[in-house]
Amino acid sequence: MTLLVQRSDVGEFRRRYRWLALVVVCAFLVLAGRLAELQLVEGDVHAAQARRNIVGEITLATTRGVIRDAYGKVLAANRPSYNVYVVPGDIDLEATWPRVVKLMGLGDSERGELEKRILTQRSDPVRDKQQMLLKVDVDRDVVAALKTHEATLRGVEVSPAPVRYYPYGELAAHLIGYMREIDPETLSRLEDRGYRAGDQIGAVGIERRWESYLRGQRGSRKVLRGRVRGTLDRDELEAKYLEEPRRVQPIPGRDISLSIDIELEQAIERAMRGQLAGAVAVVDVRTGRVLAALSKPSFDLNVTSGGTGKKAVRDAFRRLYADPLKPMLDKTISAAYPPGSTFKPFSALAAMESHLLDPRDRVDCRGGYEYGKRYFRCTGVHRNVNLHEAIVESCNTYFYRLGEVVTIDPLAKVGMDFGFGAKTGVGVNPEARGRMPTRSWYTRRYKGFFRGGYSLLAAIGQGATTVTVLQLALAYAVLANGGTLYQPQVVRSIETSDGTVVQEFPPRVRRMVSVDPGALALVKDAMAGVVSEREGTAHHAALPGVDVAGKTGTAQVSHVTPRGVDKDRVWYFNRDHAWFAGYAPSRSPELAIVVLVEHGGGGGKNAAPIAMKVVEAWQKLKAKRLEARVSIQPSVKRPGSP
Amino acid sequence: MIGRGAPGTSRGVAHVDMPLLLGIATITTLGVVNLYSATSAYVDSTRHARLADIYASQIYWIAIGVVLGFVVSAIDYRHFERLAYFLYAGGLVTLGLVFVLGADIRGASRWIQLGSFSFQPSEFMKILLILVIAKYLHNDPKTEPRSLVDLVPLGALTALPVVAVMAQPDLGTSLIYLLVAGAMIAMMKIRRSSLIWLVLFAVILLPLLWKYGMHDYQKLRITSFLDPEADKTGTGWHAFQSRTAIGNGGLFGQGFMQGTQNQFGFLPDQHSDFPFAVFAEDWGFVGGMVLLSLYAFVCVWAVHIASQAKDRFGATVAVGVGAMFFWHAVFNLGMALGVLPVVGITLPLFSYGGSSAITMLMSLGFLMNVSMRR
After folding, report:
1. Measured between alpha carbons, how far is B2 from B10 in angstroms, rounded to an integer?
2. Phi, psi at residue A582, to the nearest 5°?
3. Which residue of A has its CA nearest to B43?
4. pLDDT in tens, A582-591
5. Residues 6+ apart with CB under 8 A from A9
6. What pLDDT is recorded for position B145?
7. How far is CA B151 from CA A9, A17, A141, in A?
């Protein structure tokens, strides 16, 4: 039957075949052209992309330089810790991710947040293969668990990232400084220096100032990414696909040796225990090196540096910044205070230099000094005092008279010669300039109106005069060493991680101050008397065997109570600052010391004992080290220690 | 076996179309070898270990397909002509069964499970559609250009399976139905005014289809093709990696089982959607051109066979099979090369899949059948 059916005519189709063949040929020509374009014309581009797909780079962390004190004691070092990274483009969100969550014990909210970040980065074709920081400083158990399952957790990387560790915690915290996570703005500025999001960067102190030395340079290692069959030889594949250099070694940061003596800091901390707030600076009068600098209250560098987690950092900062005692302020460098009577030696030098006052002349102190319509009070009734007695007993009346005679500008000139009113150039932490007021300053400040009384106040270190603790210590160092104003130094040397000294910093003289030796001798004799003479303001604080010369100070504070202070505690903030500035030993001085007890009251009663204790401790340390050096040959001595 | 099917009408073993046979055999062999390379990356993969062995099952499917192909070529095609309507009706019923018995895979129900064996009725429907359209054209007495009204029955025959398959949803297969039917219908003379109407219809229908007929993931494939930068995670990402793999092949290729895009797992669905990317990465431009030429040859040869056919049924079946082969190849290659959007259309005899391989080989059996009985 089939064969009998009417045969349909094939003629109708005849003209179509040519067209069909043409369509086929054209279509395949287009495909062939595209194949040629992809493989021959753009081949290099695609080959490069294919290579980028399989070659990944793993960051090799560097170790930050260690900060040591003058005797090799470690002040800042690194402790091992592990960070977990994911490569958003590689991780399997259905299979791998839930396992990671479980192994790391992430909470639901944390998980959701991280998942969102992974998805965002994954959709960015430029960054999807870059490591994304998942969590810092994970527990050892988690590290172990992740390491065990490493082979099956594609796109998850656990890499060591040492965390900064400060063995002395709060001690000399302001000077040493701490680390913080780099913020986006700084990052955009420093990106070409190899910083990345999530990096730690020195926030204050030495950590900040010497960041570029301490930091080091991270290395990298090329790895094969993607699913590699276990049956293939991984080494062979790596040799084939990874270009040299396959590994760039990280360069560890430079170590830094400070001039600071941490044991002296410890002694200072002990001596300051009875006081709420204040600052102490000790400098070597022969070099200008800072031997100790302590600001109180302090804070724990391990907390602020993030070693205890981000939340702890946030809480700590919130608390620290709310504290009216200003724990975050470096009171040795970044804050200026009225020096009070500790300025008197400089006033005395100014008077003798101008020959307007004979040191033997006496002024009768009856508890104050009348000038114009005002009565300027003294601390007591000192009767007839000459310059020596006026310094020893801290008689204001004498110095009011002195101020009246010398006038403000010569006072200011001597003050500026000794470094007041200008930055010391210590280079660590923002420095307060302090103020050495002149006639023109007052004129400008008070709209052309200058009162003679300002000179009187300037002579006793009150009025508009302010100094920093470090400035005062350096100025006393000038008194002690006979005229050399040093630039203070905190860093002694820079070393490589194996201990080779790269750079040493010799003492730097800022200026030679011209002082009349006779006048200086007179002043120094008086300052020795402050401690040694029965009438001396610091005599009660004197310790047997501790030879200190100096000057006490009790500086009135402007009655501005910081915000947020309890009504019951306002009295504290109205109390005078207690000062002691001096040097030791008095005959052949080695160190200059300044003690400031904020709102401590009388300087002789509150600041001087601290200074005595510190000097006593310093003497003991010196003796101990001398003994150690005699008994053991210094064969294992670190470079940088004296 | 060949030539023993219908004595008197068959021209026997001597009349086997050797160029066609050789072409198909070469493509099939290359396809299996390539599948081995494509899935070798899964050896000792914990989640996809099963995939490493699929080249073996593909060989079974091909064996079944070859046997069925020879069987089909041995039976005079005019027997199929007689049965065309019944077969077509049976195919439609099976397509309907998918919705009742269908196994849900990736949100689409395309498979029917028969014991441990699952098959895809929409694949076999392609052959039945070709047969039924050929039958209609064969019996169509008209010689003058067709009007729109004349095309209505053909449109209906095509539309039924198209709608059924789109409901699965399977955009790729319904597209193949349309294009194959279109190619066959294009063999007839059609009035110019009717053609204009058809084009107009299409223009009106396309936006409606976009709005109501397509799923979001299907739309995404199109949009990501039109704007590759917009989506580098999903479909656009696949297409991007495919282009990279092909380009990575260069002139001579990376070598068998050496393509890094494939071996390191950057090609998704390399065994089903992107076997050509694997092939071009392994064998380069030289290998790619050989394969393109083979596909082009089979297509052109199908046209040649059609032109030699002794009746309209034979000619249209040959055109239909050729068109099916052609559209599959062009769409899959175009998608791998990044000139067409990613639609799930397999590469004939290269992509993994039992139903697909068997359908292809069976339909090529029809081609052989026509060739042997000219």
Report:
1. 9
2. -170, -170
3. A229
4. 999 998 999 9
5. B143, B312
6. 83
7. 18, 21, 74
Pairing of strands A74-79, A163-165: antiparallel
d(CA A598, CA A338): 11
ipTM value = 0.91
Q: What is the CA radius of gyration of chain B?
A: 21
Measure CB to CB from residue A39 to each of B249, B264, B266 and give the nearest one.
Answer: B249
User: Which residues does A524 contact at the CB level (< 8 Å), separation at least 6?
Assistant: A479, A480, A549, A586
- Which residues in chain B have their CB less than 8 angstroms from residue A227's CB? 41, 45, 264-265
Of B189, B247, B326, the CB nearest to A46: B247
Count Cβ atoms below 10 Å from residue B213 Cβ, excluding itself.
Answer: 16
Sign of CA dihedral B70, B76, B79, B80: positive
- Give residue B13's identity as a one-letter amino acid code: V
DSSP state letter for A42: S
DSSP letter (8 states) at residue A251: B
Q: Look at residue A584 and give its three-state secondary structure.
A: strand
Q: How far apart are CA A493 and CA A512, in angstroms?
A: 25
pLDDT tens-digit profile of B331-372? 999 999 988 888 888 999 999 988 899 999 999 999 999 998
Determine contact, residues B305/B372, Cβ cutoff 8 Å: no
A148 touches chain B (CB under 8 A): no
pLDDT average, residue stretch A349-364: 89
Q: B145 contacts in A (CB within 8 Å)?
A: none
Per-residue tokens: A469: 């603790």
Picking from B40, B244, B283 by the largest number of A CB atoms within 10 A of its own CB, the best residue to mutate is: B244
Under the banding of pLDDT at 50, 70 and 90, the label for residue A309 is low
